[in-house]
Task: inverse folding
């Protein structure tokens, strides 16, 4: 077993941070922010919090969709991406917007617009 195949939590955190900076400069250009809220390297799971202008932005669901699909394909150690925008208020951290193709609580498909990036 090679030590190079297993990155430390700090190295993986840096990779995810660099991914967000490299792939989504438009978030910052539009007054938003993206930060790692939680990272579980062992489980391959990361939670990204979008803040600033992203909290009320109508296209934040598309941004989240792009983050999810790109991150798992570009960073092999990441298998699950959760994202939060702060929308929904209260202390419920499980609140997140729906994404095209996902099933809603009523088991109806949400075929929304695709991400432009």
Result:
């Amino acid at each position: 077993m090679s030590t190079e195949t297993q990155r430390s939590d700090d190295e993986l955190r840096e990779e995810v941070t660099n991914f967000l900076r490299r792939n989504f400069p438009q978030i910052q250009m539009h007054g938003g922010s993206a930060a790692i809220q939680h990272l579980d390297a062992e489980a391959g799971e990361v939670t990204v919090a979008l803040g600033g202008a992203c909290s009320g932005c109508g296209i934040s669901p598309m941004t989240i969709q792009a983050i999810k699909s790109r991150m798992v394909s570009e960073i092999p150690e990441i298998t699950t991406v959760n994202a939060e925008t702060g929308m929904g208020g209260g202390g419920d951290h499980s609140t997140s917007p729906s994404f095209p193709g996902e099933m809603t609580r009523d088991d109806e498909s949400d075929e929304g617009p695709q991400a432009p990036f």
